[in-house]
C-alpha cells in the first residue's frame, strides 16, 4: 500500500485520537519490550507530530505515579513551539523546539527539570528522504548516532567527559534505515547494554526500510 493511502493503522489512529499512525509502532514496541515503566523519565527525540509523546505519557501510568516526558523537534521551529497533542497527554509532557544535532545534555535536563538523567530515550528521527538509498541510510545513521551519543556520553572514547543523559539500567530506542551503518551501530551498542535487539513493528509500512534498535540495561 502506498504511503498516501489510508490503511488500517491510519484509520485506527484517527479513531483513537492519536496524532499519527506511528503511535502503533511505539505501542507494539512497548507491549513486547516494556521500555517505559510507570513513573519513568522519557526523552523523545524527533517528537513531532506528537504520537510518541501520547504513547509515552500513557505508559507512565496514573498521575500519582509521577514521571516526565520531554519532546524535542526541529520541524516545529518555524512555528516557534512544539505542541503536545491535547489527547492522551497530561501535565507531565513538556516540549522544546531545538535542533538535536546541536543539543547538549544540560539544556535537556533543565527543560525536563531533572537533575541526573532520563530512564528512557526514544529516537524516531528520520532524515528528509532523497530517494538515494546510500545517502538516506547515511543520514539516518547520523541521526541515530547523535541520539546514542546524547544518551551514553562519555562511554564513547572520543568523548572522555560527560555522563550522558541515560541513567544506568536505562533503555534507548533508535529508528534507522537498514544498511551497513545500522549493523555497525548494533555492534557498538552491544558493548554498552545488557540487551540489544532489532525489531520491526507490524505498524511499519511494508515498503519502508525502517527498523528499530532496542537497547535495554545500560551498563
TrEMBL record:
Presence of the UniProt keyword Methyltransferase in the record: yes
Occurrences of domain Ribosomal RNA methyltransferase FtsJ (ranges): 18-217
Organism: Ceratopteris richardii
Domain of life: Eukaryota
Stated name of the protein: rRNA methyltransferase 2, mitochondrial
Active-site residues (renumbered): 175
Upper lineage: Eukaryota, Viridiplantae, Streptophyta, Embryophyta, Tracheophyta
Any Pfam family the entry gives: FtsJ
Gene Ontology MF: a single term: rRNA (uridine-2'-O-)-methyltransferase activity
Family to which this protein belongs: Belongs to the class I-like SAM-binding methyltransferase superfamily. RNA methyltransferase RlmE family.
Matching InterPro entries: RNA_methyltr_RlmE, RNA_MeTrfase_FtsJ_dom, rRNA-MeTfrase_E, SAM-dependent_MTases_sf
Keywords for the protein's UniProt record, in alphabetical order: Methyltransferase, rRNA processing, S-adenosyl-L-methionine, Transferase
Amino acid at each position: 500500500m502506498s504511503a498516501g493511502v489510508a490503511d488500517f493503522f491510519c484509520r485506527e489512529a484517527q479513531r483513537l485520537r492519536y496524532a499519527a499512525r506511528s503511535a502503533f509502532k511505539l505501542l507494539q514496541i512497548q507491549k513486547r519490550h516494556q521500555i517505559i515503566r510507570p513513573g519513568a523519565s522519557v526523552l523523545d527525540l524527533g517528537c513531532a507530530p506528537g504520537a510518541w509523546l501520547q504513547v509515552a505519557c500513557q505508559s507512565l501510568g496514573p498521575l500519582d505515579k509521577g514521571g516526565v516526558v520531554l519532546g524535542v523537534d526541529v520541524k516545529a521551529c518555524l512555528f516557534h513551539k512544539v505542541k503536545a497533542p491535547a489527547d492522551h497527554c497530561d501535565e507531565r509532557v513538556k516540549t522544546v523546539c531545538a535542533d538535536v544535532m546541536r543539543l547538549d545534555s544540560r539544556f535537556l535536563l533543565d527543560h525536563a527539570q531533572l537533575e541526573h538523567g532520563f530512564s528512557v530515550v526514544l529516537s524516531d528521527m528520520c532524515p528528509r528522504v532523497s530517494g538515494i538509498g546510500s545517502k538516506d541510510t547515511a543520514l539516518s545513521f547520523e541521526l541515530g548516532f547523535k541520539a546514542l551519543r546524547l544518551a551514553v556520553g562519555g562511554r564513547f572514547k572520543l568523548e572522555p567527559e560527560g555522563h550522558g543523559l541515560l541513567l544506568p539500567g536505562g533503555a534507548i530506542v533508535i529508528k534507522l534505515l537498514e544498511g551497513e551503518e545500522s549493523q555497525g551501530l548494533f555492534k557498538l551498542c552491544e558493548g554498552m547494554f545488557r540487551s540489544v535487539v532489532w525489531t520491526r513493528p507490524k505498524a511499519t509500512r511494508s515498503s519502508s526500510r525502517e527498523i528499530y534498535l532496542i537497547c535495554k540495561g545500560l551498563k
